[in-house]
Design brief:
Elements lengths: L2 H18 L5 H48 L6 H25 L3 H26 L5 H19 L2 H14 L7 H20 L6 H19 L4 H21 L9 H16 L14 H28 L5 H17 L5 H27 L2 H21 L4 H34 L1
């Protein structure tokens, strides 16, 4: 039962009390009761519809599995034409189902089933044709072709189920040799346009789920694009996600529907701490091909452009809040990229990471105090404490000094929270007076 249905059921239970207290008259009570009952019925029907879809898809998969096993048993007895005809049956079913869905204006269940049947039928036909004619090719090439041909069905039927399968199917591409980063980027861009379409639409019911799907999509982007100077590229990707989450939060997106901000900020903090103490984090991959290097550089500059657009939007919305944090991080990452091209990228990269972590932690603490936000304040303290702990691990110190550093970091967190809570309580008392 979702939150909306609980609210309507609560209101239904309170209507007799409102009527007895004279807050509403009899006609208003009847109207409210009918409205609440209708809304509860819609929610229950929607939930039943998704259950029906799941059971129906399971049944179709079982039927299809039985048919496949039957033809697999008799496959060698069939000629080439018969094999192609049998392989085309799922795609034909999907085409018929899709035409019926579009021509009659069917609902969500029909659209999801049509998209899934059409995409699955296409993938099966490609696999069978490859096997029949022995065309060869790699897993990366097969998945690239399959996913690109699934994109039209994704857009035509506006299928969130196919979009979810699409995102996780992209990771199958990484199971083989990544022969062309451009092809992987094209596959990712096709899904990204679909995601941007739903995130930009105010009335999209899938916006929250699409935000969560962008998390594995970002991991896939890191796998195929961050092949050269991995440390700086990963930091830029995490900064983009954190900035996008801050923009979404500034536009009023609830925290439960906005995973970008906590995930992006956490990933960026971890990368800064790791970059400040790990060797090889900022070095270039000497084994990367020229094509991979050029494509990674191009992707980096596009990512920088996206980041600065997000930072500018954040400054426009909230001029005095968290915008300085993202500006400082973005500027330092950009400068860091220039610096690691020098003769000693590791030293420069480690110093740059420590500086970024220290500045970002201090700005988070200051913004947390100004906004009276314990989450922002604690995020800054945690980043500063992590910086101290990593420095103790990285330094040539004995166990005694390291234990003292851990104790000092813990006391910093405890004392900072105590001071912050007292200040917030004092501010509340002043406002009440």
């Amino acid at each position: 039962m979702n939150r909306r249905q609980k609210q309507f059921e609560w209101l239904l239970g309170e209507l007799p009390g409102f009527r007895a207290a004279g807050v509403i008259d009899e006609s208003a009570e009847d109207a409210l009761r009918r409205h609440c009952q209708d809304e509860c019925g819609k929610t229950a029907a929607s939930r039943r519809g998704y259950y029906t879809l799941a059971i129906s898809l399971l049944g179709l998969v079982l039927v299809a599995g039985g048919v496949v096993l039957f033809f697999n048993y008799n496959w060698d007895m069939l000629g080439k034409t018969a094999r192609i005809a049998v392989s085309s049956v799922p795609l034909a079913i999907g085409a018929v189902l899709g035409m019926v869905t579009l021509s009659t204006g069917r609902g969500v269940l029909w659209r999801e089933a049509s998209a899934l049947f059409s995409a699955t039928g296409t993938a099966l036909l490609i696999a069978m044709l490859s096997q029949i004619y022995q065309t060869g090719g790699s897993l990366y090439d097969f998945m690239t072709l399959t996913l690109l041909l699934a994109l039209p069905f994704l857009y035509i039927f506006n299928s969130i189920l196919l979009a979810t399968i699409y995102v996780f199917a992209m990771f199958v591409m990484t199971g083989g040799a990544i022969t062309s980063p451009a092809a992987g980027t094209l596959v990712l861009a096709g899904w990204a346009i679909f995601a941007a379409w739903h995130l930009g639409a105010k009335a999209s019911p899938y916006a929250a789920w699409v935000r969560y799907l962008t998390l594995p999509a970002a991991v896939f982007a890191a796998i195929i694009l961050c092949e050269w100077r991995t440390g700086v590229q990963l930091m830029t990707l995490a900064a983009i996600m954190a900035a996008a989450g801050a923009v979404a939060a500034a536009h009023g997106v609830p925290a439960k529907q906005n995973p970008w901000l906590p995930v992006g900020a956490f990933a960026l903090g971890v990368l800064l701490l790791v970059g400040g103490c790990r060797n090889g984090f900022f070095s270039a991959d000497d084994h990367a091909s020229r094509q991979a290097i050029i494509w990674s550089q191009s992707a980096f500059w596009v990512a920088q452009l996206v980041y600065w657009l997000l930072a500018a939007e954040l400054v426009r919305i909230e001029r005095r809040n968290l915008a300085p944090v993202w500006y400082v991080i973005g500027l330092m990452v950009l400068c860091n990229y220039y610096l690691v091209l020098g003769d000693d990228p590791e030293t420069v990269g480690r110093i740059g990471s420590n500086v970024i972590a220290a500045v970002a932690g201090l700005l988070l603490v200051i913004n947390g105090v100004r906004r009276n936000s314990s989450s922002v304040f604690n995020a800054g303290l945690a980043l500063l404490a992590g910086l101290v702990v990593c420095r103790f691990f990285d330094s040539d110190l004995g166990v005694l000094w390291r234990s003292a550093g851990f104790v000092a970091s813990g006391l910093l967190l405890l004392a900072g929270n105590l001071v912050f809570i007292r200040r917030r309580n004092h501010c509340s008392e002043v406002k009440n007076v």
